Amino acid sequence: MPTDALPWTPPANCSVQMLPAGRWWDAVQAPRALGEHALRLLGDATGAVIDDPGGKRLAWLIAPGAADLWDMSWLPGIELRGQATYVHVPAVEQTEGPGVHWRVPLAPGRYLTEPAYLLTVLQMATKAVQ
Fold first, then answer.
1. How far is it, in rounded angstroms, from Cα 67 to Cα 27?
2. Where do the H-state alpha helices sit in 3-105?
3. How far apart are alpha carbons 47 and 112 in whole angstroms?
4. E-strand spans in the chain?
5. Cα–Cα distance measured from residue 22 to residue 42, given in angstroms and rounded to the nearest whole number
6. Of 28, 37, 65, the residue nearest 126 (C-alpha)
7. Using CA atoms, how far apart are residues 126 and 124, in angstroms rounded to an integer?
8. Organism's domain of life (predicted)?
9. CA 12 to CA 9: how far, in whole Å?
10. What CA–CA distance (Å, rounded) separates 36 from 52?
């Protein structure tokens, strides 16, 4: 469920910053093929998504700690970026490549992705791309 207000300020007037996960959000990163499939399945239920073409990954922002108990062992290539990790975050206006950009831009009402639904979709996408 996306939230209405942003509790943090994304970078502005720069290309990309390394920001700490675990404070305002955690990030769930997926390999490109799996992430593309998950993004289609999520449709309008997705929150903001970061596209890292160099790392060949998509990343969803979720509430801090929301995925701490997920069993990641059967989600190949999915990585959780939580406390004590950092994420490449593009400037708020960076909505196109090349380079790290917002695939689904931040906006009021489009910030965090609901974590339980994201997990279900990632499980479905994993089965579909295997």
1. 9
2. 32-42
3. 5
4. 16-20, 26-31, 49-52, 57-62, 79-81, 86-90, 101-104
5. 23
6. 37
7. 5
8. Bacteria
9. 8
10. 12
Q: Are 115 and 80 in contact (CB under 8 A)?
A: no
Q: Shortest CA distance to 89 belongs to which of 14, 39, 4?
A: 14
CB 41 within 8 A of CB 118: no
Interval 16-64: pLDDT, tens: 889 999 999 999 999 999 999 999 999 999 999 999 998 899 999 999 9
Helix residue ranges per DSSP H, 6-114: 32-42
Global pTM value: 0.90
Neighbouring C-beta atoms of residue 71, cutoff 10 Å: 7
Tokens of 49: 């998504």
Over residues 58-106, the pLDDT tens digits come to 999 999 999 999 988 878 899 999 989 999 999 988 999 889 999 999 8
